[in-house]
């Protein structure tokens, strides 16, 4: 079976905005408006849904969030759906989605990261439709640094397209942009040098496989359920093996280590040819760093483990397509990830 890719975004295409998890508080609506205009400036029509309330931990009751997401993903006039950001409770929409209908529908790009992994990764695993782990809507106004792309660039690419991204070797390690004071901010503050880091061994890496992965703190809660059967996806779509990527948002190193152990025992990494680990600002523990946590939990896989990749909560962002064929090269001279939408 082959992975199915949504049709590319074209000028005049419609982009749906909804919050399957957390909504946008009133004092951040100015940033939302800036982000919407950034999408419109690329020539797209933006449709903002009703599930956007940021007063609580979720934008609306679970049934409403699931219904709006279903409506957007099955509307043939909407070519991409992106949330303002992640949150905490996307898990409660999963049993309310009509997975058979999603499987039969014409594919639509579902975009995001963090808690959006809770929906996006199962969508790819259960339907074979590619999803786009990339910057969320509120991050969209930022200009991608040299070597990286925006989710808008990837979603506009046709099936069969091949693109390579390489790290800018700088990231943000301190502070954050205050969207309340500066809703229009569009330039990253990349204040710290840093490159990809191989954790398991020394030496060059050149490895291929289909990409799948997401946020550790949210996906770990799906292990052992029918929503996270990575082995079945590998058998159906990736006999060549997988490039599995993971990222930690805020949990300390001991929690990340425990969760990765559980995901490994549940088979999440069984078909991995390599593991990519996002750079994180999550705290170390007294006796365990975040790097050590990954190595302790995933070292038994005996595959290359490359950390500090730009696919997590630390800006900038390197978009990854769940289901795309990937090729990673990591040497002293260069680091790059090539994705092919086939």
Show the helix and strand layout.
Elements (H helix, E strand, L loop, with lengths): L13 E4 L11 H12 L4 E4 L13 H12 L4 E5 L16 H6 L4 E4 L4 H11 L3 E3 L17 H5 L6 E4 L4 E2 L20 E2 L3 E2 L6 E11 H4 L10 H8 L4 E6 L5 H13 L6 E7 L11 H9 L6 E5 L10 E3 L2 E6 L4 E6 L2
Question: How does this model look, in words?
Answer:
The longest helix is centred in the last third of the chain and has 13 residues. It is built from nine helices and 16 strands. The protein has 342 residues and is α/β, with parallel strands linked by helices. Helices cover 23% and strands 22% of the residues. The chain has an eight-stranded mixed beta sheet with strand order 6-16-15-10-11-12-13-9. A six-stranded mixed beta sheet has the order 2-1-3-4-5-14, sandwiched between helices. It has a two-stranded antiparallel ribbon with strand order 7-8. The termini are close together.
The tally of beta strands, per DSSP, is 16
Rg, please? Answer: 19 Å
The chain-level structural class is: alpha/beta
Helix content: 10-25%
Total helices: the number is: 9
End-to-end Cα distance: 11 Å
- In what order do the strands lie side by side in the largest sheet? 6-16-15-10-11-12-13-9
Question: How would you spell out the order of helices and strands?
Answer: EHEHEHEHEHEEEEEHHEHEHEEEE
**Range of strand content:** 15-25%
Report on the biggest sheet. 8 strands, mixed
Which of globular, elongated, flat, extended, rod-shaped describes the shape?
globular
Task: Tell me, rounded to a whole number, the average pLDDT.
Answer: 97
- The unreliable regions are none
